Amino acid sequence: MANLSLSVINNDSKKTFDITDEPCFTFTNNRVLKVFMVLAYVLVIGTSIVGNTLLAFIYFKSKTMKTAINCCIMNMVLADLLITLVYMPRMIARILVSLQWLVEGTLGLVLCIFVSMSQEISICVSILTVVLIAFERFFAVTVPLRVVISKKLSTLLLCGTWLVSLAARSPMFYGVKTIRFQSGELGCFWISSLSFQTERSRKSYHKSMLVAFYGLPLLIIMTLYTVIVVSLRRRHGLIDNVTRDCVSASTRKVNNMILAVITAFLLCWMLYFLVIPLQEFWDVVIPCEVLFLRFFLGHLNSACNPIICLTLSENYRKAFQMIRQKLKLEKPWIIMLASASSKRDRSRSNIELNSVRALES
User: Fold this and answer.
1) Exposed, middle or buried, 235 (CB in 10 Å: 0-12/13-18/19+)?
2) I want to staple 75 with a disulfide (CB 3.0 to 4.6 A). Which of 6, 85, 158, 320 is the partner?
3) If DSSP codes are grouped into helix, strand and coil, which group holds residue 190?
4) CB-hemisphere CA count at 13 Å for 33?
5) Which residue, 93, 41, 52, is CA-closest to 302?
6) Dihedral sign, CA of 36, 37, 39, 43?
């Protein structure tokens, strides 16, 4: 994030804070361009909600989909939905009203903290999940006859990703505040001086986050997939053609889907992480257009993941077809209610008819 010094009114006194946030999101007064930016975000939000909800529906409705790798995919789905439902609407507001925060009071402060932390926690969760997926593929290829990461173990590890991410972004809990400008407008910012005592500690924190949540995961993923490729080539040379074709067909599709998910994630969030050292350590002035593109490309990944899974994974497509056929065989709830009410009417008329016959006799 960029450091921005602003003079604000806080507790009836004028103070200057070093604010960690992007200072320009209304970098153009062109209404056509603003409408295009808003429509682009609306398209991403709609695709992400529909696609990720469909993946979650397939996972929870199909018993065959509850595997360790699909459990990891669901963890990314939850992180993507968190960004989509909580943070992306704020991006639309920032395009229209810049950094102005529209909710005041205690509720406004709570929402400010929640919205600001939601994106950073979701990014960390997705990165740790991608690393876990790489380890799962590594063990599945190198130790094919043994389940190293079971579904139960993966569930525990995925819960740990949320706890680790929350701990890593805990400084934001103390530094995110709602402050009022001299103009009277309210803003939601991360005030770095409240989270860190010195400039050196702030830079050390951002450096450690950059290494721990981008540099090191990238190195681990590249190393594991290099070993996976080498192991697959050696295995193909040791087995016959028929067995090799069967093994290749079963593992190639899963590996292609996972590799596509990881590649899309790294490419979409690359600019987001590259801007951090440029601003924090070398004081490079980043154009506002690049800052907007930085967020938009990262948020675009939330819409890419369901498209990749539904396009490259035959298991997801088959499970969706089975669920759709099963739903077609079941009666709609309206017909069920109508048949139930007709049964009640028939039983009631039978009781009345029996009562009339009893009185006549």
Assistant:
1) middle
2) 158
3) strand
4) 9
5) 52
6) positive
Tokens 């506002």 -> residue: 288
pTM, two decimals, is: 0.82
Q: Terminus-to-terminus CA distance in the chain, angstroms?
A: 90
Length of the chain, please?
361
Token pair in block for residue 280: 């924090």
Query: 202-205: long-range contacts (C-beta < 8 A, 24 or more apart)?
Result: 203/280, 203/281, 205/171
Residue with tokens 């979650």: 56
Interatomic CA distance for residues 152 and 192, integer angstroms: 39
- Please state, in angstroms and as integers, the Cα–Cα distance from residue 203 to each residue in 13, 74, 80, 119, following that order: 29, 34, 28, 20
Quote the tokens at residue 258: 């996972």
Q: If the chain, 361 residues long, is cut into consecutive pieces of 10 residues, what is the mean pLDDT of each piece?
A: 46 50 60 90 96 92 86 95 95 84 90 93 95 91 84 92 96 89 82 85 89 92 89 67 53 80 91 86 82 92 93 85 72 46 51 51 43
3-state secondary structure of 4: strand
Residue among 46, 18, 343 at smallest CA distance from 196: 18
Rounded Cα gap, residues 11 and 104, in angstroms: 15
Q: From CA 221, how far away is CA 265, in angstroms rounded? A: 12
Whole-angstrom distance, CA of residue 148 vs CA of residue 153: 9
Residue 112 and residue 188 in contact, taking contact as beta carbons nearer than 8 Å: yes
Going by the DSSP 8-state scheme, the letter that residue 64 receives in this structure is T
Please check whether residue 32 is in contact with residue 94, taking contact to mean a CB–CB distance below 8 angstroms. Answer: no
**What kind and span of H or E run contains 241?**
helix 241-280
Q: Among 22, 38, 54, which residue's Cα sits nearest to residue 303?
A: 54
Burial class (CB in 10 A: 0-12, 13-18, 19+), 178: buried
Query: What's residue 9's pLDDT?
Result: 44
Q: What is the CB neighbour count within 10 angstroms for residue 5?
A: 9
How far, in whole angstroms, is CA 270 from its chain's centroid?
16
